[in-house]
Amino acid sequence: MEKQLQKSYGLNMTIPTGYKIASSEKGFIWLRKDNPKANIISNIWIHSRTYINPEQFNKKSLIELRDSIGKTHVKGSRPESFMATETLYSPDYRLIKEMPYTIETKGLWTMKNDFLGGPYTAYAILDEEKQIIIYIEGFIYCPSERKRAHIFELEAILSGLKLN
Fold first, then answer.
1. Residue 119 belongs to domain with CATH number
2. CA distance 152 to 13
3. Predicted TM-score (pTM) of this structure
4. Residue span of the structural domain in which 154 resides
5. Into how many domains does the chain fold?
6. Tens digits of per-residue pLDDT, 59-91?
7. DSSP states of 49-89
């Protein structure tokens, strides 16, 4: 997996054991670690798209990007259910690095037309050399557990990534 991420996205990232590729296509990969006994699912998405202008890094654009990925790739068990950003609470949004330019967002996700949800943390990174935006997100589903330790684990994985 780490070699595939390096080749496809130019990312050096340490992926802990237990993660499997849930879905992969050009410009998108979804890594997932299931723990069915504890009903915990840890997820990491990586998506790349062409960089066109700085507006792509504003909060509204990043939420729209996140929602388009969720609608395309995460379907619920009910008809017409899909993942989206929870709008009751506005996601946190901040610049965390100038080089490479990196915006962090943190918020909650929900399953539209269904009853699932949880926290997420995401980075939008500008790869100036390739003129692409790399969007990487970790999100958790664990309805019967406290989420803090699980989201911290995902944040540790994401914070360790580096562009080649």
1. 3.40.1000.10
2. 16
3. 0.93
4. 2-163
5. 1
6. 999 999 999 999 999 988 888 999 999 999 999
7. EE---GGGGSHHHHHHHHHHHHHHH-B-SSTT-EEEE-SSS
